[in-house]
Design a protein that fits this description.
By secondary structure, the chain is an alpha/beta fold. It folds into two domains: 174 residues, Rossmann fold (3-Layer(aba) Sandwich), CATH 3.40.50; 196 residues, Dehydroquinate synthase-like - alpha domain (Dehydroquinate synthase-like, alpha domain). The longest helix has 23 residues. The model has no long low-confidence stretch (mean pLDDT 93). The protein binds fe (ii) ion (FE2). The site of fe (ii) ion has 5 residues, from helix 6 and helix 10.
Amino acid sequence: MTSNISKFSFPTTIYFGAGALDNLPDYIQDLKIQKPLIVTDPGMLDTDVFPKVEKVLKDAGIQYSIFSKVNPNPLDSDISKAVEVFQQTGCNGLIGFGGGSALDASKMVQVIAAHGGMVNDYDISTGGNQNIKGPLVPMIAIPTTAGTGSEVGSCSVITSVEQGRKFLVCSPLLIPSIAILDPELTTGLPASLTAGTGMDAFTHCIEALTVKQLHPMCDAIALKGIEFVAKYLETAVKSPNNIEARGYMQLAAMMGAVAFQKDLGAAHSLSHSLSAVCHVPHGLANAICIIPVMKFNKETCLKEYAKVAACLGINTFGMSDNEAAEKAIEAVTDLNRGIGIPEKLSAVGVKKEHLEELATKAFLDGCHQTNARKCSKEDLMNLYKEVF
Ligand SMILES: [Fe+2]
């Protein structure tokens, strides 16, 4: 392929709106699923929303099985166990129900059910993902958070128990057939989780926008996602039952994930390392780290950040790109403050003695390689120090 050719695609069918879950039986029928396996995590069983799914299925006379043992960072052993349930109970389709972990696990059940083996056989870093061939069993993704956007993504992140590390598996075949975005499923999310996952969605949009690869569709989607987060995240945090705000945050999360088909940037490398070393939740880590990363990238991204400023509601008329970019960074800092995100890593359990390991692991992470501005390990260390 010549180097000036870009590749992009847009496949998931999305049903969006309060009450969309009620139509689940129709979507199951559309995909010719006779018996779905619901893949979820144990915490979901105790929520108000899980019984809703069961009721909808029971009322429609649809038989189903449940696998509810997905770990917060899904393990390859979770996938093997889920595949066993899938095969032994005669299922022929999947419903991923929950946060990113449940959706990622469900995606890998599709692969292992079709091809066998273990998750690391499909690791993208060794080209194993090329072994994923279609067709896989159909999957419906029902997110109950608004952040990862895994419901429209082509990747799954799974931890290998034996090797003690995370594997990224990506293939267009992993993109769910249908995503149901029902904001009523997210009203029970606590404020801190709403804030963190919402800022994950925001970080996806910002980082995708500034990746240098050409993808004008993703850029437009990222800007609209930023606008939705700026307009609705604080309301979703402070008025959890506000369906309009919850709905727009679900859209923003989905749009962030569509946009990051382009790739991500340094905030995600910093954040992946913070989660691995200090167990800081992914969204919270991104929320803190996106500020120094925006400052670091500013000179390289003046035009993009000037557009971001307008999406954040700033009247940029008459401003230079530099002024608008400065205002954008200030506005993101204010947004964090308004939703209760701490400014410093020391406030979320990070200690000085963690910094060296954090920077080493962040540098090994692939996301910063597509950051708008090239990063050395020292740069990453300085970014941590700036918000330590
Ligand atoms: Fe993320």
